[in-house]
Amino acid sequence: MILESAVTAALRTVNDPELHKDLVSLGMIERVQIEGNVVHVKVELTTPACPLKGKIEGDVQAAVLKIPEVQSVVVTFGAQVRPPTENPIPGVKHVILVGSGKGGVGKSTVSTNIALSLARDGAAVGLLDSDVYGPSIAHMLGGADERMFANDDKKMLPLERHGIKFISMANLIAPGQATVWRGPMLHSFVRQTLMDAAWGELDYLIVDLPPGTGDVQLSLTQLATITGAVIVSTPQDVALIDATRAMDMFRKAGVSVLGMVENMSYFIAPDTGKRYDIFGHGGAKATAERMNVPFLGEVPIGLQVREGGDAGTPVVIGHPETPEAEALRQIARNLAGRVSVQSLQLLPMV
Q1: Total domain count for the chain?
Q2: Which helix (H) or strand (E) holds 160?
Q3: 57 with 136, same domain?
Q4: Are residues 165 and 56 part of one domain?
Q5: Within-domain flag for 35
Q6: Which one of 49, 79, 109 terminates a domain?
C-alpha cells in the first residue's frame, strides 16, 4: 500500500526551481490521489506562464518514483497567480510597467506581445497604453477604430482584442488628433484609466509607458502598487544610456526592476541566412549584469513583427512559429517567473 504521507514526504524534496523552496511548503500541491500503484499529483503553479513547468513535472515524477511501490506518476497542473500585496486597483493582482527611457526601441511592440503571450498561456491580462502623446497599442491590436464607453457605474469599459483587455488614448480621441496636455491632466488620465476603469479580475495589468522619466511614470508609482518594471532597449549605447536612466528612476521610486529585454538584437537575412548585428549585440545583457538585474531575453529583427503590428495581428498571434514570436513568448514566461519570485514573501506556507 502506498501511503499519502510517503508521497508528501517525497514531494517535500522537490523545490520550485525559481522560488527555491519545496512544493509542499509553498502550498503548491493541490491534490494527491493514489490508485493502486499509480500516483496522481496536481501541482498549482504560481503562474500559468510558468517557464519551468517541464522541469517541475520531471522532478515530481522522479521524487515520487523513489517510493518502491510506485509504478507510475501522473502530474497535472493548475495555476493561481498570487498578488504580493493588496492592490488599490480592484481585481488586479499585478501591475507591471514596461519602459525604455527613450522612444524608438520597440517598447510598445514588446508590451503588446508580452501581454498576448501571457494570455495565450492562460492568464487574465489587461494592457494599458499610458503614452497619451503617441498611443500605438490600439493600432497594434487592430482596435484603433473602436470607441470607449462607460458602464452603468460610470466606469470606463476596456476594449478587448485577441483575448486581452486594453485602454488607449487612441480610442478616446478622433484619429489624427494631437493630445496637448500639461502634467495635471496626465495625472488625471492615469488615475482614471487605473482606478475608474472596469478592468475586472486580472492576473497581470501590463502598462506600456511613454518615453522618458516624467509625469506618467511618477503618477503610476504614486497611484498603484507596482509589482515591478521591465526595461526594453536595443543593443546600442545611445539606447542603453537612457535605459539605465529609466532603471535609476524606478529604483528611486521604490519599484523593482524585473528584468531587461534586448529588442532588435540581430537580423537573419531570409535569402542567405547570414546574421547581421545591425545595432550591435549583447549590450542589454551586459547592462543587466552590470546593474544586477535579470536578463529576460533578446528579440531578433523580423519583417513579420512589423507587419503584424501594422495589421493589428501581433506576431505571437499571427506568426507564432517564427523565431521572433518564440523569443517573445519565452520572455513573457521568464517575466511571469520573476513576478512569482517577487511575490514569494506572501506565499502561504504549509
Answers
A1: 2
A2: strand 159-161
A3: no
A4: no
A5: yes
A6: 79
C-alpha cell at 42: 496536481
Q: Is 283 within the bounds of a domain?
A: yes
From first to last of its 350 residues, what are the pLDDT tens digits of the chain?
Answer: 888 999 999 999 999 998 899 999 999 999 999 999 999 999 999 999 999 999 999 999 999 999 999 999 999 999 999 887 777 888 999 999 999 988 889 999 999 999 999 999 999 999 999 998 889 999 999 999 999 888 888 899 999 999 999 999 999 887 878 888 877 888 899 999 998 999 999 999 999 999 877 888 889 988 889 999 999 999 999 999 999 999 999 999 999 999 999 999 999 998 999 999 999 999 999 999 999 999 999 999 999 999 999 999 999 999 999 999 999 999 999 999 999 988 875 444 43
Q: Would you say residue 276 lies in a domain?
A: yes
- What values do phi and psi take at 113, rounded to 5? -75, -30
Closest CA to 216 of 116, 137, 98, 110: 98
- Domain presence at residue 33: yes
For residue 71, the enclosing domain spans: 4-79
Instruction: Answer yes or no: do 69 and 96 share one domain.
Output: no
Residue 222: its H or E element: helix 215-223
Angle CA(94)–CA(98)–CA(103) in degrees, nearest 5? Answer: 165
Query: Using N-to-C axis directions, what is the helix angle for 323-342 and 107-120, rounded to 10°?
Result: 80
